[in-house]
Amino acid sequence: xxxxxxxxxxxxxxxxxxxxxxxxxxxxxxxxxxxxxxxxxxxxxxxxxxxxxxxxxxxxxxxxxxxxxxxxxxxxxxxxxxxxxxxxxxxxxxxxxxxxxxxxxxxxxxxxxxxxxxxxxxxxxx
Length: 126
Known about the structure:
mainly alpha
């Protein structure tokens, strides 16, 4: 009985917060954070693209690099870390979400997904 009353109170508080945050205010807040962090970091997503590419994706394909070699039995290679990060980031929910967004929103949904991804990268980085 005490646990049920506690859970009902938690649910009530959660519903109140969700109805306030997940409106236009929450969307504008997320977009503003992405724009501000993009400006503060000097458009890091584009300015450091070469550095990112050279040290992540391109390093996997170099023959003289230790990106794909294990140095210790208890460690993972850079390639294994990359695959793990991609598996955690790009899941079936993202693939199905993109398909659903295009079906519901049409081609314009792709533009907004690109904008959200561009601003979301720097928000995640920050």
